[in-house]
Amino acid sequence: MSNTNRQITLASRPIGYPKLSDFKLVESPIPTPREGEILVRTLYLSLDPYQRGRMSDAPSYAKPVQIGEVMVGEIVGRVIASHHPDFKEGDIIAGYLGWQEYAVSDGKGIRKVDPTLAPISTALGVLGMPGMTAYFGLLDIGKPQPGETVFVSGAAGAVGSIVGQIAKIKGCRVVGSAGDDTKIDFLIKELGFDAAFNYKTVSDYYEKLKELCPDGIDVYFDNVGGPLTDVVFRWINVKARVVICGQIHDYNLEKPELGPRFLRQLIIKRARVEGFLIFDYADRYEEALRQLAEWLKAGKLKYRETIAEGIENAPQAFISMLKGGNIGKQLVKVSEP
Amino acid sequence: MSNTNRQITLASRPIGYPKLSDFKLVESPIPTPREGEILVRTLYLSLDPYQRGRMSDAPSYAKPVQIGEVMVGEIVGRVIASHHPDFKEGDIIAGYLGWQEYAVSDGKGIRKVDPTLAPISTALGVLGMPGMTAYFGLLDIGKPQPGETVFVSGAAGAVGSIVGQIAKIKGCRVVGSAGDDTKIDFLIKELGFDAAFNYKTVSDYYEKLKELCPDGIDVYFDNVGGPLTDVVFRWINVKARVVICGQIHDYNLEKPELGPRFLRQLIIKRARVEGFLIFDYADRYEEALRQLAEWLKAGKLKYRETIAEGIENAPQAFISMLKGGNIGKQLVKVSEP
């Protein structure tokens, strides 16, 4: 092991889609853990749409990454030195330790990963934040009932692909949208979606939704926003639940877009729209992880990963993900497990 | 009593604000009740924004009024002949009997009004649909907690004025908007709102909301929609509840307007937006009316009425109401009680 820690820092705040020059690869010495701390070697880094938000200094639910700071991100890693009573060398852990090869932590917010349960990378996907986001967003806010129609945008992503499968487990008709024909195949043939469409090649969203959701939409799980979401509000059912999980369409706009006002539809349909953040469910993570692991073990949940190699390739992989280049969970393998 | 029933029918579907020529005054013989029916003489006619929706044939939650049909509306009237076991001559009743001087009914959907409880016109206001709309919308959907800030648009209208007062009863800071300085005085001096502003003379809604709601907005009860509502989403608090009751700004547009997309705000604030219709609460009307009557009797609820005279003046009064000409409940006195 060399003595160098390679890190990706924020070089400049992007306008529109991030560019490679908005990131900087810096080298520093591997930090030394003090009493009560652990040193972690990153194995996998999670790339997620929320990280785009942290690159901007617009007001949001969390502080932005400052220029020169290491990019925020969750990782799975191995404890390679421990001066902390709860961790020992060799433990596999997950936590928000950033885009870097090594990190020191005082253990706060760090959870242990059981490597016998499933491949450890799933702690960043189906058995991690994306899986729990799907679980709480769909079940707690969407409240799907057997026989209802659930429509998921961004359906081939880390969250959307789990949402659709949980909705199938709950006995719903499940329809998804994604931006690539390969993803549409994946949704229907591998994940068991009842129908799906490529929003990049469909010109009339309203007609397509009417065709694929002939009984209307009872639950809309939205990862995307923008023009597709505008249209969904015209095809929701009475007492529909719209779960706002992400609005990736918006994150890279150079200036805000306008859309048709839809609040009158909410009266006509007595419908509900609700945004959420997974962090508000922290006291129920265990419940979600237990259920997700059970479904995974029973073969009821499948997952896909798109994996880049090397911390130096994280910025490119991140930009690709924001443009829809991933199927399932986008990861960076930072070192060999 | 003459033998003529004067009725207001829909002459043409309005484009934008209704014009007098969209209505027609027609005369017909007073109908004769058959076995199981009552004949009602209208005393007061209720004018409400939802009636604008029924003049259009755009899809909505209820069928549109057809050209040549009597305009839809709730009335308070006196039973002047009864062949129905549940009603006797002299009973005061409320029901959706339309814009006309006389109507025959089979009793379905007709409720009796107790004239000893309060002036009978209140059965169309504070002790009727507007009062119950305020009650269920604010308490069931808005769920205001003591110390929270409730902002009400269209605050001087039949619903808004009750919403604000119930929110005060519940221990909230209450702020309202209306379109006239006289209304602002009414809200603050008569109804006890903590603050209010005239949206027609305030140019920067965001700065005004920050000034009058310094702790943000926890519950937004929206009767209006449009540009003001666009801005409110920028000033809601974490876990805010937005109750969509009406969107009168939209009802008379000649073509739909665009507005800034705000769904990302719902994620950041983990906020909920919900539309509702009073009809979904039919099995709880009694609860609401009992509570509203109790508050009214205790002097905790005040109400104001704007009353036009004569069925022939209903169209003009309706157009005036749509443009904000009323304070409190807009009524037409159709005959002397």
Can you give keywords for this protein?
6-stranded parallel β-sheet; 26% helix; 337 residues; 7-stranded mixed β-sheet; 2 domains; homodimer; Quinone Oxidoreductase, Chain A, domain 1
How would you sum up this structure, described in words?
Chain A has 337 residues and is α/β, with parallel strands linked by helices. The first copy, chain A, has two domains: 4-125 and 304-333, Medium-chain alcohol dehydrogenases, catalytic domain (Quinone Oxidoreductase, Chain A, domain 1, Alpha-Beta Complex); 129-279, Rossmann fold (3-Layer(aba) Sandwich). Chain A is built from ten helices and 16 strands. In chain A, strands 3, 4, 5, 6, 7, 15 and 16 form a seven-stranded mixed sheet that branches. Chain A has a six-stranded parallel sheet with strand order 10-9-8-11-12-14, covered by helices on one side. The first copy, chain A, has a two-stranded antiparallel ribbon with strand order 1-2. In chain A, helix 2 packs across helix 3 and helix 2 (129-142) packs across helix 9. The A-B interface holds A 59-61, 222, 225-226, 229-230, 244-247, 250, 256-261, 263-277, 280 and B 59-61, 222, 225-226, 229-230, 244-247, 250, 256-261, 263-277, 280. Strand 14 (272-275) of chain A pairs antiparallel with strand 14 (272-275) of chain B.
